[in-house]
Each structure stands twice: as structure tokens, then as C-alpha cells.
Amino acid sequence: MRDLFIGIVAAKPRDLPELPDKTYRYMQDLVVWARRQNFETWLFSDKNKPLSGPGITKYIEKKNFRNKTFPNESNGLHNRRCIFIYFCGHGYSRGRYEQFWILNNGENTWQDRLDVMSMKEIVEKYQPEHIRLFGDACAEPRDIQGGSSPVFPDPLNSTPPRNIRTDMFFASSRGSTTLANGDGPVFSQVVRRAILDSPIPQEALDKMVSIYEGQPTVTNRSLRTYIEPRFDNLVSKLNGNAVPWMIPDVDHPGCIYRQETDPLTRAKEKTPIGSQTTPGPTAKAEQPSRPIAPETSDVGHFSLLDSSIDQISSDLETILKNVSSGLPNPFKTRYQVEVFHDVNRPGIKFVQYESGAVLVPEFSGFETMVSAGRIDDFHSEFSLKLLPSNHLNITRIQESGGLLLHELTAGNSDFDTLKVLVEQARDRLYEDPLAPLSLAYLYEASGKRRTIKELFLDLAARTDKVAIDLALLARIPIRYDAKNQKLLAHDIPLSTQLPILNRGWSILFTEPIDPVFSPLQQIKYLPGTDAHTVLREEYGIRIISKWMLEYFGNFPELYEEAPKTQQ
Fold first, then answer.
1. Which of 238, 306, 213 lies closest to 2 in space, CA to CA?
2. Are 89 and 104 in contact (CB under 8 A)?
3. What is the DSSP letter of 338?
4. What CA–CA distance (Å, rounded) separates 525 from 533?
5. Phi, psi (5° rounding) for residue 86?
6. Where do Basic and acidic residues bias regions lie (predicted)?
7. Of 122, 94, 172, whose CA–CA distance to 500 is shortest?
8. Alpha-carbon span 565 to 161, nearest angstrom
9. Which partner for 338 in 2, 16, 347, 554 could form a disulfide, CB atoms 3.0-4.6 Å apart?
10. What is the pLDDT of residue 9?
């Protein structure tokens, strides 16, 4: 058996929505198919016991790839021809080129997750001709895609490949969610039906099957030929009871993703995805049509992902001409972002001017990203300065912190309203990096005289973790517990889900940069580095803490006294 099929299903991960039981059936069906195609099969499933990333990768490494050779006419030995990796479950992306498959732990720990690129590097040791990754999971970052997207091999070429060919075919992209219904994950259903549905007319069968070294093989081209006419029809039938596995984001609301870089699978129609959900005109963007979950509304948004300022200048002009009235000097604004929470609520507007900026959290599934900037006046406009970056994207702001900031910046600081918002947000601070700052300000503004340190201690008594940015702002010493691999402040566990650790900070390492952020360039942050490594004392805590205290020191109302600049 010169081909290898690695199947992984995590349908019951702890702390995350459970997938339908039929999910396991899909892998079984694909295994049957793989064995008929002369694949050796290695199967991993959480049906009877939890899975772990290290356990899977160690199993693969222990298989002694050097001995997995096969007869070859030229030298008597030949390595794997094809390694096919199939995963079905929840996914998560922590940065550019990073995709993690969640196995049994939905918390912000990494030891049990499976790093897709690490898997790829491990199986590359077998020196196969092809590696194919098929992931039916959420939050796959677009940047991980490496060109074309065949699930199965094309007919054998007369010229052997010089390098290992890697093809990735994932069900979602850039933080989007995939769909599931009572029969299981929808995208897996599409592929399964494309392979296994019978009876298949002989004419269609002839188009699907190619002889690959004497074996009937479903090819990339034939699979597309079979799926394309059925895809939209199938999903439209399932949409009546299909729901996203996780909360969809603004950019790709609850969709199944078909790779747009591939002309054979690119949607040919373009439909406007913007819809006017707030008073006043709203700019509408366009992108290829795709199925959307019924409970997920289309939202007007403007994305800067993969676009330079020059490329989007015409779109910016269109948006600026359609901004709501009443904004000062709208044509000096670089762009406006409207964030919607549901169709019945007005959007939160963040307006960027030529000068001044602020830290803006962006959320995509579990991931937090950040657009960096500076607050000029916390009592007036909420300003944002676009930093040069070809992957800056403004998406959904977490509801609790977003509404709080909106109340602050819009001057609608009615105490009763703020009190409700504070209560809604107190137990969700770990989700929103700006919420601690907002809450501390609100407590102060409402006359409660609550400092950030008091707020930290109050929250520590209520929750099992407190956001690390709150500890930094409160000037509470942070230490790394090497034995338990935890970050602690006053022996209180800290959540590290904050902007400093995520890919938004990569924009700090591109030139030119706003001088206010230059001290942070001392942090030697490498994408993919474990959070605990980044935040150990010698790797950046002191730098980050010093910068935050100086940065927010302009707001003495946050403290009993204005913080002194650290030496």
C-alpha cells in the first residue's frame, strides 16, 4: 500500500458544540473508499477516548518513515506516493499561516491541539509525491492556502514532481464557520456524496474515474465536475436546518468556503453582501456568492484584507460619499467601519481621521486581532489611523466592549445605561481586550471611584481567570509559574487572549510605524510562539508593561494618581 490515508475526527471536543454523531460515519465511508483505492489507513477518533495533538504526531513519527519504502524499477525503493489527511471538527487560527484543529480542549491552551503545518512537516519525512489536506473545520486562514486545491490526485503526469506537492482543501476561510445539520457537517456531506452516491450514471462515472497506475481513481478534475452542478442545490436543501458550528463573523457569515483562487471552482456570479441595517446610507461591497446560514444576516462591511491603500482608493471614495451625515470633515476620514450585532440594533461607528488612532480589537471565532493606533482625546472622537499593512482587517467588535466604547465616545453616558452594560460585560472581560479599560473608566466616571486595581481584584473574586491586560494596567506584578505553565498576578491565573499575542501586532514590525509604538518593536515575537514563551519576563512582560503604563498614563482618571513613567 503505497498511499496513506490519515483520518481524524473530533466530534465531541470539550467546551465546544458537539458535532452530529453521523460525523463518524463520514470518516468510515471515506476510509472504505481509501482502502478501495489501495490506501493504508490510520484512524484517530474521539468517539471512545479523547484525542491529543502530541499523541497523533508521535504515532506518525514512530512509524519509522525510513522503512516505509516500496519497489521501484529504477532503484528498488520508492516512498509514499500520496498522503491524504482528513480532519473533521472545530478549527482555530492563531495567525498568518497557522491553522489548529481542536481535539478535546476549547480553552486557550495549546498542548492538545493539532497544528496543521506541523502535521504537514511530519508527513513530509515520508517523501511522498503528494500531500493532500482536507479540513472540514472553522477559522482556516486564507494565507495557509498554497495554490490549487485538489482533494484527489490529477491523472499521473509523465514528468514526476521535483518537490512534494501540497494541496489544501478546507471548508472555511478567514475565521468563517462551516455548517452542520442533523446529518453531520455539510461540506463533508458534499464530498462524501460526490464519491459514494450511487447509482451514478455510467457517463458521469466515466468522467469521474481515471486510471492511475492501473487503479481507478477519482481525480481532482472529475470531483469538481461532479460537485459543481450539485453544490448549490445540495446546500440550499440543507440550509433549512443547517447551523454554524460557531458564531459567524462579519466577513464570511456562516458560509461554506469554495476557494476563490481556483478558476474551476470560483463562483461566477457576484452579489452585493451589504445590507442597510442602520439609519443613513451604507456602502455595499461585493464578493462571490456563497451559501449563508438562514439565521445569519448579511452585514455591510469594508475589509482591507489583502488590499493596499492604492488598490482600494476608489472603494474608499465610494464609502466616504455614503457615510452618515453629521460627522465632522467626512472627506478627511480615511474610512468608516460599522459593526453590527444583529439586524435590529444600530451599528457602532468607528471613524478614522488623518491623525490619531486607537487600539481596536477584531474578533474571528476564538481569535483576537488588533489594529494599532493612538487615542488623542478619550472624551471626543474615537479615532483610528491606518497603519501600512496588506492584511489589516476590521471585523466584528465584541459586543460588550464595543457597546461600552460606543457609549463613551458618543457622549451618551447615561448612568443607568452604563450600569446595564457594565453588568453585561463584567463576566466577559476575558473576551475583549478593551473592556477592562472601558469598565475602569466607567466606574470612575459614574462616581464609584473604582480604580483598575480594585476592578482586577473584584473580578478575580468572581471568575477563574482575569485578562492579563487588566493586570498590566493595574501595575500588578506578573510572574510565570513554570511548574504549572501559568501566568499569575497575585496568584490569580491570567487569560492571555489579548492583542499582544495575536497577529494584529505583526503590523508593528512593518515600516513606517507610528513612533508611539516603536518601543514594542523590542519584543522578539515570532508568529506561532507559545503564549507563555512570549510573555515570560525576559521575552516581553517588562517591555509591554512599561509601554502600556506610559500609553494609558494620559488618563489619570483610571488611577488614584497618574502613573509615573517607568525607568
1. 213
2. no
3. E
4. 9
5. -115, 130
6. 262-271
7. 94
8. 59
9. 347
10. 93
- Main-chain phi, psi angles of 8, to 5 degrees: -130, 125
pTM for the full predicted model = 0.41
- Report the interhelical angle of 116-124 vs 53-61 (nearest 10°): 10
Minimal CA–CA distance to 384: which of 394, 374, 395, 369? 374
- Separation of alpha carbons 96 and 117, rounded Å: 11
Cα 508 from Cα 525, distance rounded (Å): 11
The CB density around residue 263, as the number of other CB atoms within 10 Å, is 8
Residue 430 corresponds to which amino acid?
A: Y
Rounded to the nearest angstrom, the gap between the alpha carbon of residue 266 and the centroid of all alpha carbons in its chain is 22
Q: Provide CB contacts within 8 A for 152, sequence distance 6+.
A: 84, 132, 217, 218, 219, 220, 223
Question: Chain centroid to CA 306: how far?
Answer: 15
Cell numbers representing residue 96 in the block: 498568518
Cα separations in angstroms, 399 against 345, 364, 429, 434, 442:
11, 13, 11, 11, 16
Alpha-carbon dihedral 214, 217, 221, 222, rounded to 10 degrees: 120
- Which three three-digit cell numbers place residue 81? 506516493
CA separation for the pair 152, 346 (Å, rounded): 46
H or E element at residue 541: helix 541-552
Task: Give residue for cell 503564549.
Answer: 531
Q: Which amino acid is at 87?
A: F
How many residues are recorded in the chain? 567
Alpha carbon separation from 551 to 332, 505, 511, 518, 547 (Å, rounded): 26, 16, 20, 12, 6
For residue 242 the three cell numbers come to 443547517
> What's the one-letter identity of residue 540?
G
CA distances from 501 to 238, 266, 533 (A): 38, 34, 10
Angstrom CA distances, 198 to 25, 194, 219, 227, 376, stand at 17, 9, 18, 14, 65
For each of the domains in the chain, give its residue range(s) and CATH number, in order of start.
3-244 (3.40.50.1460), 297-558 (no CATH)
Quick one: pLDDT at residue 40? 87
Buried b / exposed e along 265-302 (16+ C-beta atoms within 10 A): beeeeeeebbeebbeeebbbeeeeebbbbeebbbbbbb
Secondary structure of residue 493 in the 3-state scheme: strand
Residues 6+ apart with CB under 8 A from 193: 230, 234
Rg (CA), the chain: 25
Reference 401, options 343, 359, 366; nearest CA is 359
Cα four-point dihedral sign 240, 244, 249, 252: negative
Q: How far is CA 215 from CA 70, 164, 244, in A?
A: 17, 21, 38
| Predicted local confidence at residue 490, as pLDDT | 81
Contact 348, 403 (CB under 8 A): yes
Percent of the chain that is helix, strand, coil (3-state, to 5): 30, 20, 50
Edge to edge, what strands does the sheet with 243-244 contain?
184-185, 179-181, 243-244
Enumerate the H helices of 62-185 as residue ranges. Answer: 116-124
Provide the 8-state DSSP code for 88. Answer: E
